[in-house]
Amino acid sequence: MASPHPILQAFIPVVRGLALALGPDYEIVLHDVATPEHSILAMENPHVTGRSEGTPLRDYALYLLQTADRREEHFVSNYLTRSSDGKRIRSNTIYIRDCSKKIIGFLCINYDMTKGEILQSMVEQLITIGDTTSYSEFEREGEPGESNNRSEEILERNLQMIRKYVGKPLHLSKKQEKLQAMRHLEEEGFFLLKGAVEAFAQETGNSVFTIYRYLREIRGERS
Question: What phi and psi, each to the nearest 5 degrees, are found at residue 45?
Answer without folding.
Answer: 55, 55
